[in-house]
C-alpha cells in the first residue's frame, strides 16, 4: 500500500502541472485513459472530455462506483512549488489533481486485487460551474452505458481539516445552489437629466436591497438560506446614465424546495421592480440540488473510515455546492471530505486560492478508504 501511495503522490504532480478548464480537459482525460487502459479497465469516452472505466472480475453481481472530477480553475498559481502549473492563468486550486490521483490509485490497486464483481471509476470534466455531471448523465447517457451501481462514492480534499481527518455526514453535506445572471435594460441619458432616463443602476440597486428580505423576512431563521449578489456592472462615465446593467449572484440552501421557492419570489420581485420604472429584464438561472449523503451509505463505510483515519468528523456542513449531487439523486451513495491542510506556512489553506496546495500526505487516507470499500463490497 505504501508503494501505491508513493506512486499516487508522483502522478499527482504530473496532473497538477497540466490543469485544464471546464469541459475542455483534453490532455487530462487522454492521460487518464492511457493509465486506466494499462490497468486492464475498459475505458468508455463520455461527453464532454470525460470517461468511465470498468473492470469486472469473477461472477459477482455487485457493482461499486467511484467518481473523480478533473477540471481546474482560471487562477494564476502562486504556490511556487516545483510542480506548478505549466498552463498560464490556470491551476488546480480546488484539489482536483488529488482526486484524479486517488481514483487512478484505485485502478492501480484493483488490477492486482482479486475482487468479485464490477468496479466503475468515473472521471468527470466540468465540475466547476460547467454542468459536467449533467452533461455526462444527459448528453453522455452515462447510466445507459454502465451496469447500475449499488453504491457510488466521491471524495473531496478539504483544507479546513488536518491530514488524517475524514468527514462523514449523514444527510445534507453541501448546499443546493442556483446561479443567476440578470440584465436590466432601461433608457440612457445625460447624468444632469435623470428625469429623461430609465435608470438601470437605480433599479438594480433597489433589487439588491429588496432581495435581502427574501432571506430576512420570507424565510424561517431555522432554515438556512444565502442570497448573494456578487457582481453589478454598468456604466463607464461620470456623466452618463447607462442604458443597461448586468448583475450576477447565487442562492444557497440545504433545502431544495426552499431554494426553488426563493427563486420564484426573486424573479417576481425583479419583474415588478422593472415594470414599476418601465424597464425590461432578462434573467438566466441554473441550479444544483443539495449534496445529500444516504445514511446507509455512510453507515456502510463508517468502521472502514475509523480504521484508516486519525479522526472522524460528523455532521459537518458547508454552503459550498457540488455537482456530484446529481449522481446521488440517481444512485445510492455518499460524498466524503478528506482533510488536506498543508502545514507549510507559505501555502494558504483555502480552496480556490492561488496559494492553495493540498498536502500530498492526504492521498493515502483516501486511497486506503477506497481500497477498504472495494474489499468489503466486492468480496
Automatic annotation (TrEMBL):
What is the name of this protein?
Metallopeptidase
The UniProt entry, under SUPFAM superfamilies, shows: Bacterial exopeptidase dimerisation domain (SSF55031), Zn-dependent exopeptidases (SSF53187)
Q: Which PANTHER family match?
A: METALLOPEPTIDASE, PUTATIVE (AFU_ORTHOLOGUE AFUA_6G09600)-RELATED, PEPTIDASE M20 FAMILY MEMBER
Classify the source by domain of life.
Eukaryota
The record's section on CDD domains has: M20_Acy1
Task: Indicate the segments forming the Peptidase M20 dimerisation domain, all copies.
Answer: 180-271
